[in-house]
Specification:
heterodimer; A: about 130 residues; alpha+beta; Ubiquitin-like (UB roll); 5-stranded mixed β-sheet; 3 helices; B: about 450 residues; alpha/beta; Rossmann fold; 7-stranded mixed β-sheet; two-stranded antiparallel ribbon; 11 strands; globular; binds zinc ion; Beta-grasp_dom_sf (chain A)
Chain lengths: ~130, ~450
Amino acid sequence: MSAASTEDVVPITVEFSGGLEMLFSNERKHKLSIAAKDESGLNSNVAFLVRYLCDNLMKDPRKDLFVLDGTVCVVPEHVLSPALTIQRRPGILVLINDADWELEGEDKYEIQKGDNILFVSTLHGG
Amino acid sequence: MAPSICAVCQTNRALILRPKNHQKLCKPCFISVFEAEIHHTITTNSLFHRGERIAVGASGGKDSTVLASVLKTLNERYDYGVELILLSIDEGIKGYRDDSLETVKRNAKQYGMPLTILGYDELYGWTMDQVVEQVGKKGNCTYCGVFRRQALDRGAAKLGVRHVVTGHNADDVAETVLMNLLRGDLPRLSRTTSIVTSTPSIVPSSPETTSHTNIKRSKPLKYAYEKEIVLYAHHKNLDYFSTECLYSPEAFRGSARALIKNLERVRPSAILDVVRSGEDMAKLVPGGNDNCGNGCGGQATLVEEEEGGCGSSNGRTTGGEMASMEQQLVQSEAAAEGGLEVEITTAASKSPNPPDSDVIPLVTGKKGKKLKGPPHGTRKQPARQTMGQCARCGYLSSQDICKACVLLEGLNKNRPKNSIEVTYDIPEEASLNGNTVVNGVQQLSLGPD
Ligand SMILES: [Zn+2]
Ligand SMILES: [Zn+2]
């Protein structure tokens, strides 16, 4: 953890599937580097990543298909209190290095160098 | 967080948190537990019998892909002795099915299963594109849903297959239970919770004659969480395709789905609890299927499929709630003995609406405090009625002519003269007068929305 936090950026791989890729330029796999620290100087976690994806990677205007009620994208970041953590839209699974994010601390999981974070929609298709 | 250890093997790192019981499992243990549970569903409900040919309703989506994969695995592992084939429906929307049908074609190779793709044009004489051209964008979802509801049964009958399995999962069933509960439609709730259903369909036995048979439908994934289906597909690296419905989901179904997903977040066991509650309520519905869960695999509940809407050809609904199918069909004891098709026809010809039936739907129940007499909704008739078969196509229908045939009648009547002839055969003597058609079409907008 300390290794990652001493650097400015954390290189990671973010993947979208189950139809979510359609919201991200139809690309399944994205190699990104995100800031190692969030706005408050804390280690960047999954909540921060979701905000980042919404603001920077997602070109599709239908933000509500990715985050609940579009809260993240509508409300300016500085208004977001730490308590107002981002809720993933129901029906999207998050796998952190293939593990269910619920086993990893959900959105409080601190992103590590080289992490693979997969967002899968369970809602589409039969 | 310290890595969790698998609850089963106590060795590997846990990657999966099971929604139904919070068990933490590693990947190999999860896969074997998931498969074992499907096997359990199949055996305890006697879904299959040796020598049976079974069509998997395949859309290329996650549910049907997982279903095909798991059934292949289990058929080999436990020697069910069934023959599995893939059946896909092409609505004929240009470009829409291309990717999913390519996925199904790959699946056919991957699983070594023969694949048949049947188009709406082959089944009905109309592609959806042609329907849209005729009726416009608005309302075509109705056609798509009504046609889809019958497509797998018609397709199976065409192939001489008597059993279709679909990828309906626990989330789908819970959603349907909630929707029917919120509508106060317990009879339909009872029908749709059944793991096995049966619909009469026409079977072309020779060019001149046709005979009716029951197409059995079952849902081996009925107790499988959608989340686990997605995780299974992911961890087994299954090749599936996700597509968005072209049309926005019908609001009521969308809300029911959101409610289910939110409940799951707070209380993960809620989904299976709703499914089980649905089954228990079904037992309370007079004339409902008894869902004995053991040894009555052959005693399928007769049901008009209610699934509809767009986005999936395996019968699973991703949106677009279809008009409700309103009549309750009660299995007679004779039907339980196996004479289902005979029973339906005789019942239909006897008394179409027994006034003093001993079977009284809950909605109009004697003890109902508010509900006295017939149900309030004039178009909604959850009351018990005998099901007959469509005079034209032989499909199970509460009307003389099923909804698909009514829609086709309207379409064919207005078909531009220069266009190709309808391949779908309509006997002349069964032609409708204008009123009936109007009524039929109105009934298509059934349901509380
Ligand atoms: Zn294990
Ligand atoms: Zn018909």
